[in-house]
Amino acid sequence: MPQVQEFSQRSPSGAAHLFHRPALASSMAAQLMSESFKSGLFLTGPRRTGKTTFVRGELAAALRDEHGAFVLYVDLWDDQKLDPGVAIYRAVGMALDAFDGWGVRLARRIGLKGFRLCGVEISLERINAGQVESLTTSLQNLTRVTGKRVVLLLDEAHRCQTTELGRVALHGLKAARDALLLTPGPGFRFLATGSHAHKLEHMVREKREPFLCARTRSLPVMGEDFLHWQRGLWEHGERPSLAVMGASFDRLFHRVEDFIEVCNSVRAIAAIDAGEAERMLVEQVDRWLANEKKVFAEKLIAAGPLATAFLHLKAERGPQFAPHFSGSHERVMQLLSLMGETAMQPDFSMQGVEATLARLEQLELLWHCRIYVIEDARHVDWLLEMELSTLFATDRRAVKAA
What we know:
Layout: E1 4-5, H1 22-33, E2 41-44, H2 51-67, E3 70-75, H3 84-97, H4 102-109, H5 124-128, H6 135-146, E4 150-155, H7 164-181, E5 188-194, H8 197-205, E6 215-218, H9 224-231, H10 242-251, H11 256-267, H12 274-303, H13 305-317, H14 326-338, H15 350-362, E7 366-369, E8 371-374, H16 378-385, H17 388-391, H18 393-401
Parallel strand pairs: 2-5, 2-6, 3-4, 4-5
Antiparallel strand pairs: 1-3, 7-8
Helix pairs in contact: 1-2, 3-6, 3-7, 6-7, 10-12, 11-12, 13-14, 13-15, 13-16
């Protein structure tokens, strides 16, 4: 089931163990509710940098408390087996159901034309046949029954591009936005988040995309105030300097959960001086990164030399990655040679290349939906720094020994 939440109760941002950014939440809420952002806001931020916690907690609370909005939060990452289009239609339907009497809800469930639906199947065929209430009608009704501006927060919105129903839902939200902008009443605002800038930028730059020219913004990474807060949690011994903590946070790519985990492991050791705390913090970051890189290397080995060469090529060329061009194939052969795979004769046919790239997608190393994106931004740097000649050396020795 999609996570659907109207923030009428205390939000997660009130939790004492979380770091709060009230000024940023107030500023972003005011922007989103302004005329300048009526086309929508697409917010990017790498995974594990605090984006979802901030949006679902503090931003939603600011929209509700400071602007009187009715906030719907839909997490498309929560249940990846659920079609993102279904999640969106279902979320709006569930919100409306909360305001409808039992008779109206029952009528929807037994199949009357225009049902919205928690318990009724949502499909592309039913939508096209007019058997599922349009998002425009549903959101107009939601603004009417709540008497508030409805704000939809769609987390990991790029997943809508992966299914036909997801794309239909995006176009439906765009149509609803346009209709509500022209209709007297509280109105509608839309915020989409994504863990990779290229994925979201594609959704607002391409002519075919429904939210063409919507505003984009990168969520600021945690700053020095976060480091002060984390440093203040030290209860035993002396604390590392802000400079060392900041450098450690940078090396961890500003991943909040990773940094807190590393700090906790050092904090747990009692009665150490500042110098020892700093040394241990650096060592823990080294171990953490070494383990992450080891897991990444294991995925590359599972993918195989050819897939790794294509992934390396993507890291090298970025948006200019063109896997089917002959120049790309020449570079792949050079990379295979660097790996010691001189005898390999790759299949560079359309089907062969697609099969290789599909392997990378299966391993969640590469994402493809009209564009190719390396799933984890850290992997770009790690690939370019990697010593390719030793990556598959163990496998080759095992083959020779056999």
